[in-house]
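User: I'll paste a sequence; please echo it back and then give the predicted structure.

Assistant: Echoing your sequence first, then the prediction.
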Amino acid sequence: MTKYLISFPGEAMVFPQEDFEAVVEASHAVIDEAKAAGVYVFGGGIDEDVDPVLVAGDGTVTEGTHPGHKVPNGGYTVLELPSREAALEWAAKIAVACRCSQEVRQFQHDPAS
């Protein structure tokens, strides 16, 4: 089984404010479905009210991200699935729930994870 990152930037979610609760319910329903199917690993949204920092090997903390790197935001779901096709199917379900396209990335195999 391979782990897949399904994600979207926060600004991609465009819908009327009055639809917010419906979007939340729909997205939670997809996550519940993934959990019931036994493919859910992790999911969540980046808290955009907390600024990112860089931590060096010596413990030095610097505000911001790597130079030239866009600050990640939005929502992320990690699923463990048997195929890329399955990942695309789940991404489509999440896209409907969140009302925006999803990016699908495949994690490299790491026997220690």
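The chain has a mean pLDDT of 94. The first strand starts at residue 2 and ends at 8.
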